[in-house]
Amino acid sequence: MQADLTPDFPNEAEAPVHLKKRKALKIAYNAASILGLLLAVAVCIYFYRMGIFTKPDAMQQYMAKQGAWAPLVFILIQIIQVVIPIIPGGVSLAAGVVIFGPWFGFAYNYIGICIGSIFNFLLSRHFGRPFVEAVISERLFKKYIGWLDKGKRFDTLFAWAIFLPVAPDDFLCMLAGISNMSFKKYVLIILLCKPLSILLYSIGLTTLLQYIAKMLGG
């Protein structure tokens, strides 16, 4: 018994104290995670009821009223739409460019999406596969779950999927959370590979929206 306790506890008397501390920290962490998720849902419902997620004009008007806080509010909206995908991410990407211009719009999109992607990874890593299966459609889950059987190749496939806008990024971020990929490597892939897909979505959709507006106006 003493040998088992030696790595963590100087003596057996201290074992119960350390175990209680660990248990308390784990409970606090779980409570904070649940509280954060509930807060995100509440904010999401608030924005949805205001029409921000469904009407581009409503989002633009809302941002205009925020003044200097507009960038932070928009980044928060982007984080929420990544974690709780109510609207297609491409719509909010285009809105960022329209509202803030190409450079600042790209920067705010990048910041919000990267933070949201990291949250997705942490949520799935903490709550595990049952969480991923609960929030993702069965069809999508079955389509990509086989990637986990590819071992180290999963990391490469994931990096390419994030680099090129051809796969469901938000789900793959959750899938990475239940893989063997390290958090450090995941963050590095997100930070380095996200810019191209964000740029393509932002500029491509913005150009399309401007073309449609021109056609309707003409």
TrEMBL record:
The chain crosses the membrane at residues 27-48, 69-100, 106-123, 157-180, 186-213. InterPro entries: TMEM64 (IPR015414), VTT_dom (IPR032816). It comes from the Bacteria. It holds the Pfam family VTT_dom. It is found in: Cell membrane. The keyword Flavoprotein does not apply. GO terms for cellular component: plasma membrane. Residues 87-202 form the VTT domain. Keywords: Cell membrane, Membrane, Transmembrane, Transmembrane helix. It is a multi-pass membrane protein. Belongs to the TVP38/TMEM64 family. This is TVP38/TMEM64 family membrane protein.
